[in-house]
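Input.
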Amino acid sequence: MLGFIIFALLGTIAAGTKWSTATWTPNLALDLEGGTQIILTPVADSGEEVSSAQIQQAIDVIRQRVDSSGVAEAEITSQSGGKIVVALPGNPSEETLDLVKTSAQMAFRPVLAIGNPTPTDTTPTPEPTASAGATDPAAPAPTPTPTVAAEEPSDEPTKAAPDNPSDTAYYITPAVQAEFDALDCTDPANLTGGTNGDPDKAFVTCGQDGSAKYILGPVEIEGARISSATSGLNQLPSGGQGNLWVVNIAFDGPGTTAFTDVTTRLQGLAATPPLNQFAMVLDGLVISAPSLASGVIIADGKAEISGTFTRESAASLANQLNFGSLPLTFTVESQEQISATLGSEQLQMGLLAGLIGLGLVVVYSLLQYRALGLVTVASLVVAGLLTYSVITLLSWLQGYRLSLPGVAGLIVAIGITADSFIVYFERIRDELREGRTLVAAVDRGWERARRTILASDAVNFLAAIVLYVLAVGSVRGFAFTLGLTTLIDVLVVFMFTHPVMQLVARTKFFGQGHRLSGLDPRRLGAPEGSARYVGRGRVVHGPRPSGVDDAPVEDAVVEDEPTPRVPVAVGGGTAGLTIAERRAAARAAEQKATTSDAPVDAPTSESEPESGRTEGNEH
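Output.
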């Protein structure tokens, strides 16, 4: 199974290199490869000074565009003087560069239709056919229906003029409906924004989070008409403060008049949702689409937006509205190619550190486990091949880029993976010390080791998730590779290391405990005839009887010898013995000493019949 997975990964990459843009090496991030740096200056259309909060919101808009376009490891920061620095790794396309430079606008549009984010299947249902059976030879042959090339849906309205901006019969043309049906808001490419649409026509777009798609009417209120937007707890009719987070929005003079007209019309459409909703569109994506409360007409230009807000989401919406109140134009100050911030030298040093660490692990494994260390080496090779294949595949399909912190995560993974093997091997050696055969030791050692391995990897994976969620920038690259290699470690141990151990346990070299195998029971402190602890304070002397290797140790036969043999470790002393074996050895030594100090019985009197002694000897 593991071989099939590796073959599928490598085969997919090979196919991608031939028929697509895939390569055999992963893409590198900005710190290792360099890229394009663009310096933008946000300028308000009204000439007002741009605040730091609006600059931060502009950075969020640009990051939404860049991330949705599939560019990973981009750096977007603010600079002194109100400038925004956008650094994109590699050679970004002109489309991506245009997304960065495009101005962001806000508008209020009426909602005409809402749908699920996935494309709508509009394939017509085929006409029912007669059941299969004998045909009438006298029946005339059917005349073939001539085929006509499919025509583009019409974009012409069915009426001369709309009754109002919520007139679905006018604005939802066949072309608009076809565009709405085909739109897939689960595709990140459709969440880049940057396209605001014709303000006088219907507009098909997605929600900013990709949870729904919309058909919107023409623009009724521009974002510049927003006077202010704040978030806070709701005010009760009695004048007190409630416990619901809301967003309060206020319009200027022209905006108040327009908003009064909008709310008056939407109240008349309360019975036909979603026509009673209006959408707030920022950078071509719907950030909120609230409905009007029943019987409410807002004439003072002050509205309260409520819902399932948290403190953070309410503040985020208020910031977006404030950003839309001051339309910004991004002026490109400079655009240039930049070299890698760290360069290939740091990458080479990182790879060298990884190779040194890998070499030390291999040397330690061979010294500690002898031939058994080759299983560790093979497992590390398989884990490395899997990791490299997955990262290369993600680099092609998801735009992932490997940064220097990501390389550090891969180096740390060497120790994590080797630790899993050590836990497993030591469990097997413990079972051999108790007198089990290698086949039984592998099975029983796996039962004990896998719980420890899963617990350890679960902690590592949880740490990687927390670090990825809470961290920003290149630190997330470290967390990503750490989590990825932890999952691969579990896969390799369960699907490669353990099956290989089951196979080598049945070989003569390992099964009979060759001195170079690393699994020689005598070298592990379990010589032939030594005592074995079988649980519940009991000790068995001598080798395990044939045929009971797989039986529970509690079922072993306990010898009741008056003077048990003392277990001795290889080389003398008590090294390699368990606590129970040491106690048994101490008791045996004490009993032997007591016996040697006891008085010896007097010899048998000569009056005893000689025949009695002879008869006893013959018996």
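The radius of gyration is 39 Å.
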